Amino acid sequence: MKGYWLIVGTEISDQEAQAEYSRLWKPIGEKYQARTNTTKRPPMLVEARDAKRMVLVEFPSLEIADPAYEEAMRFALKASNRVLVMFEGELG
Q: Is 10 helix (H, G, I), strand (E, B) or coil?
């Protein structure tokens, strides 16, 4: 069953930290065949308060854990306030 990460965050406040997160995330995403929503029109945030960004990441399985993500996560949390929700299922 596929696994998903739904990431909802505020505006990026630290561009350098975000760039480092992106650099560290790229090989992890490739290793685990992650696919992100790449539509031109981003998902709508309804009743989102401070949230300005939303990303949906799809993996072949939710059983993905990589110690390298610990380092990347530090930069993600420094770049903006965000919430990451993990779930599994088939979206179609």
A: coil
CATH no. of 2-89: 3.30.70.100
Q: In one letter, which amino acid is 3? A: G
Q: Write out the E strands in the chain.
A: 2-9, 35-36, 53-59, 82-89
67 vs 11: CA distance, rounded Å: 27
Contacts of 62 (CB under 8 A, 6+ apart): 1, 2, 3, 4, 86, 87, 88
Average pLDDT, the chain: 87
pTM for the model: 0.81
Q: At what angle do helices 15-31 and 68-79 cross, to 10 degrees?
A: 150
